[in-house]
Design goal:
- α3 crosses α4.
- The chain has 365 residues and is an alpha+beta fold.
- Strands 3, 4, 5, 6, 7, 8, 9 and 10 form an 8-stranded mixed beta sheet that branches. The chain has a 6-stranded antiparallel beta sheet with strand order 11-12-13-14-16-15.
- It starts with a strand and ends with a helix.
- The protein has helices at 24-33, 87-94, 99-108, 119-129, 150-161, 213-218, 224-235, 283-294, 297-304, 335-364; strands at residues 3-4, 13-14, 16-17, 42-46, 59-65, 70-80, 140-149, 166-176, 179-186, 197-198, 241-245, 248-252, 258-265, 271-278, 309-314, 318-326.
């Protein structure tokens, strides 16, 4: 337990850990005010960088060390899992970026404000920050989160041993009547820090009733919208088995590597994502099933009344068909519309999925 004590106090005030998710404004403030949280003196180039993938609304932070090392920071206000390893792809996209490239990002990014700045002014500020003219062509990856799932910690340790410049930084914010205290625990360069390890939640095939007290604790800070959607679907369940995760509701199909899910994201804007995901580590097999469904794309979109988005590949060799909605993810009033859309999403896509699987199985027989 941490306490806040002012001179003359008779007793310390216990600090309350901020377990809820952070709003966009709060995350912006945290990144802007404490860039040293990642463990090294850096210049933040952009704290809501979204140019990697147009539909990915995680908090991507780009920073630059004085020796020219670019930092790609994945900011998760809650529990980080293996999806954060998409940062490897992001770092690859920035590998070889030069001074002008970084200055252009800085000039048009969130740090520069809504008006931005002239590219030459941005470049002058970047040059002033650097100790020399060299920009390292291999970015450093930093995963910043309150806790890390065990499988992610194992993967990062494996990458570090093989020379990948990647690190985890655990942070915890404490709320003291509107004032924040932030505890960050970065590791030494090339080493893992002492991190809180969150054990995995139940798999998509596990009964919803098996959700443990530990899992419920991990779900602290979930959005009010997702909680309301969950409550509604418990009263009026879909025909698919539901598993509750910290930032998602997952609905298992009869196929182990195919599932529906509802996810909410706060950053850089409120977003609800309804998806059908093909998660077998075989891009060709996933594409065959997805393309059989997408052969009726126009009809599907008419029945859904929504535009269907396709990510191919999505994280390694997976494929995902999704519908996106911008909304206030902390407003439970939106839950009814989300449930209605998800119900329609499942009813439209599930029969087509079953037909696609049957067709593939028949062809392979």
């Amino acid at each position: 337990m941490l306490y806040f004590i002012k001179p003359g106090d008779d007793a310390g005030t216990p600090l309350r850990a901020l377990e809820r998710g952070l709003s966009q404004t709060e995350m912006d403030t945290l990144i802007r005010c404490t860039p040293q949280m990642i463990g090294e003196p850096v210049m933040v180039l952009d704290y809501s960088y979204d140019a990697f993938t147009p539909m990915d609304s995680r908090a991507h932070v780009l920073a630059l060390r004085t020796d020219g090392k670019v930092h790609v920071v994945e900011f998760r206000c809650g529990i980080a899992d293996n999806t954060e390893l998409k940062c490897i792809e992001y770092a690859a996209n920035l590998a070889g970026a030069g001074l002008q490239d970084l200055a252009a990002i800085y000039a048009g990014g969130a740090v520069a404000g809504p008006e931005g700045m002239a590219p030459e002014d941005a470049q002058n500020l970047v040059v002033k920050h650097l100790e020399g003219p060299h920009i390292d062509e291999d970015p450093r990856i930093v995963l910043l989160a309150r806790e890390f799932r065990a499988e992610l910690v194992s993967a990062v340790r494996w990458l570090v041993k093989r020379g990948v410049d990647i690190a985890c930084v655990r942070f915890q914010a404490y709320d003291l009547g509107g004032t924040w205290l932030v505890d960050a625990q970065p590791g030494e360069r090339g080493a893992m820090p002492p991190v809180a390890v969150a054990m995995p939640v139940a798999s998509a095939a596990s009964p919803a009733s098996a959700v443990s007290t530990e899992q419920q604790a991990l779900e602290a800070g979930r959005s009010a919208l997702l909680e309301s959607v969950e409550a509604t679907l418990r009263e009026n369940p879909l025909e698919l088995q539901m598993t509750v995760c910290p930032d998602a509701l997952v609905f298992a199909t009869s196929h182990e590597t195919i599932a529906f899910d509802v996810r909410v994201r706060r950053y850089p804007e409120g977003l609800v994502e309804l998806s059908l995901s093909f998660t077998e580590d075989n891009i060709d097999a996933n594409r065959v099933l997805a393309n059989l469904i997408l052969s009726q794309r126009e009809r599907i979109e008419q029945e859904l009344g929504e535009v269907l988005q396709v990510k191919d590949p999505w994280y390694r060799s997976w494929v995902k068909l999704s519908v996106y909605r911008n909304c206030d993810v902390d407003d439970p009033e939106f839950a009814g519309e989300v449930v209605e859309t998800m119900t329609r999403f499942v009813h439209v896509l599930l029969p087509r999925l079953e037909k696609a699987v049957a067709r593939v199985n028949k062809a392979g027989a």
